[in-house]
Amino acid sequence: MFQFTIPGMTCGGCARRVTNAILSVDPQAQVVTDPPSRDVKVISKANEQALLAALGEAGYPAEQPAAA
């Protein structure tokens, strides 16, 4: 599982675009977005760099979440 923080994901429309970017890399991925916290959890067989690249290309560069 991958977990990212996406500072630019502020609404449901953003969350859909983030999800679509991830699904463009791995159509079988499971994606959970939370716009208020800007967190995304992904279960995917794709590699992390491919997911990060797709998010960046979609205009939603991701960061690693802060440690709790």
From TrEMBL:
This is Heavy metal transport/detoxification protein. PROSITE patterns: HMA_2 (PS50846). It comes from the Bacteria. It comes from Manganibacter manganicus. Pfam families: HMA (PF00403). GO terms for molecular function: metal ion binding. Signal peptide: none annotated. Residues 1-63 form the HMA domain.
